[in-house]
Amino acid sequence: MKFIIVAGTPGAGKTAVLIHTLKILLQQNVKPSVVKIDCLYSDDPKRFAKLGVPVQLGLSMDMCPDHFSIYNTDAILEFARAQNSEFLIMETAGLCHRCAPYTTNSLGVCVIDATSGPNNPMKVGPFLSCADIVVITKGDMISQAEREIFRECILETNQNCSIIEANGLSGQGASELALQIRSTKKRVSENESLRHNAPFAVCTLCAGEKRVGAEHHRGLLRKMNGMQEYVGE
Amino acid sequence: MEIHQITIQAGIDKLGNTERLPDLRINKGEIYGIVGPTGSGKSQLIADIEQLAQGDTASKRRILINGAIPSHELRSDPRKKMVAQLSQNMNFFADMPVADFLKLHAKCRGKSKVDIKQVISIANTLTGEPINASDNLTILSGGQTRALMVADVAIISESPIVLIDEIENAGIKKHEALQLLSGEGKIILVVTHDPVLALSAQKRIIMRNGGMRDIIESTYREKQISLQLNDIDRCILALREDVRAGRKIEEVNFEALRHELSFL
User: Fold this and answer.
1) What InterPro entries has UniProt attached to this entry (chain A) (predicted)?
2) In chain B, what are the domains?
3) How far is A175 from chain B (nearest CA, A)?
4) How far apart are the first and last CA of chain A?
5) Which residues of A touch B142 (CB under 8 A)?
6) What are the CA-CA distances from residue B179 to residues B126, B154, B162, B183 (Å)?
């Protein structure tokens, strides 16, 4: 089975681009399953279901959304197998700039908003630098010069990615994304691992600490001056 | 690679009907206007040309270069790009000084020898308050932004195909800007609502409901009218500069204007 993992900052247009892409895949008789991961709430499964694709929603609630999707990968793949899908597309909540949800044999797709400015590709971290495909949205809202600079900044962060300029409103770029999804040679294996490690931390915030002062915190901690230490047992 | 001709292969309009105008071939040296009501698909048409669309945009048009399908590289690599576009966008989102931005763009286009100061001074011939190299892009006014975009397109993106979207809305000197952008042997398409600009093009594409509806070749009479409109336009632009400069308007030579109008 092909496993396509789509990540990107909130509001970048992941769902809009995916809906156009799914329409094209369906026309080509490809029958994918879709899993949407979000934190607290999502309307997107309804939008996917309208297309007639099997869709499952996972809400991470108190757990980190990327950790949630990684932890549940087996269950997610099982859902797609039960649907007899050759393709499984997972859209992540994708909030943290320190994580990348892509596994070794998945097709990693990063969706990034061109209006976020040319410094953004450097800021967003591994979910862009480890992606196979980078989809740039909202390019119609900026000048040609800025579009070209944005593209260059992406290539500086990830030389080997394939870039698609897309428009979530008109569907431009969706046919190319559909083509690349169909033609990928990657197949998900029994032993998937992450392409990039998550931050090293068992953090007090994860355990529900709400107080702000430094003395209340344990784990791998890093100070403003760059000093890093482990505090705890 | 030299460009002799681009072909716009007809796509569909907003209702999904095939465009009325069949394949359109535009040759080196030709200037086309693109006219039609707002929402008629003018900007989409030039966006299709900018991306060298291959049936993958809303209009399903295909763009050929010298009669052939352009390579993937020609479509995506800014160093190989043959299309320069001045879009309608009036804002920059990049949070950086003007000079850094221009240097970055010159690097993207593979033009390391471009004189950044010259680009800025050219932009300053089109706008009122001068732009400084150290100004942050995001604080520029609408007119300054547009003037900088024009200078950038003219010098850094310098390409054989030039697409210009509603230059008249920018509050900058449109005739000078247009002259800067056009050049000998280029293919130029100008989206406009301005009769002075529309009539000065050799041909104009009529857009309706997302599709190319018709094409009008400008007649000898239209060319005469265009020249006269130019004079009237110049008079109004001069007045605009006076008003902007805070001067009082004592007199307008209506006689001269009436003289021009009597020929229309």
Assistant:
1) CobW/HypB/UreG_nucleotide-bd (IPR003495), Hyd_mat_HypB (IPR004392), P-loop_NTPase (IPR027417)
2) 5-218 (3.40.50.300), 220-263 (no CATH)
3) 6
4) 43
5) none
6) 11, 10, 12, 7
Tokens of B166: 């509603």
**Nearest chain B Cα to A172, which residue?**
B57
Among A119, A144, A149, the residue with its CB nearest the CB of B50 is A144
**For chains A and B, what is the number of CB pairs under 8 angstroms?**
71
Sites in chain B below the pLDDT cut of 50: none
CA distance readout (Å), B90 to A86, B120, B195: 45, 17, 22
pLDDT value of position A36: 95
Q: Where is B171: in which H helix or E strand? A: none
Write the CB contacts of B5 (distance below 8 Å, at least 6 apart in sequence). B25, B26, B27, B28, B65, B66, B67
Which residues in chain B are closer than 8 Å to A145, comparing Cβ atoms?
Answer: 101, 105, 149, 152-153, 156-157
Q: Distance between CA atoms of B79 and A93, rounded to whole angstroms?
A: 35
Q: What is the per-residue pLDDT across A92-122, written as a single tens digit (0 to 9) for each?
A: 986 678 888 999 999 999 999 999 988 889 8
Is A143 at the interface with chain B, CB within 8 A? yes
Q: pLDDT tens-digit profile of A41-98?
A: 999 999 999 999 999 999 988 888 888 888 899 999 999 999 999 999 999 986 678 8
Using one digit for the tens of pLDDT, what is the confidence trace for A128-145?
999 999 999 999 899 999
Instruction: Give CA–CA dist B249/B243, Å, rounded.
Output: 7
Size of chain A in residues: 233
Q: Is B149 on the interface with A (CB under 8 A)?
A: yes
Q: Tell me what the pLDDT averaged over chain A comes to.
A: 90
User: Which domains are present in chain A?
Assistant: 2-183 (3.40.50.300)
Q: What is the pLDDT of residues B37-56, one digit of tens each?
A: 999 999 999 999 998 999 88
Q: What is the pLDDT of residues B154-195, one digit of tens each?
A: 999 989 999 999 888 767 788 888 888 988 889 999 999 999
Q: Is A141 within 8 Å of chain B by CB?
A: yes
- What pLDDT shows up at residue A95? 67
Could you tell me the pTM of the whole model?
0.88
Phi, psi dihedrals of residue B83, rounded to the nearest 5°: -120, 130
**Which residue in A120, A148, A156, A175 has the most chain B C-beta atoms within 10 A of its own C-beta, making it the best mutation to test that interface?**
A148
Flag whether residue A117 sits within 8 Å of chain B, measured between CB atoms.
Answer: yes
Closest residue in A to B104 (Cα) is A149
**Is A176 near chain B, with CB under 8 Å?**
yes
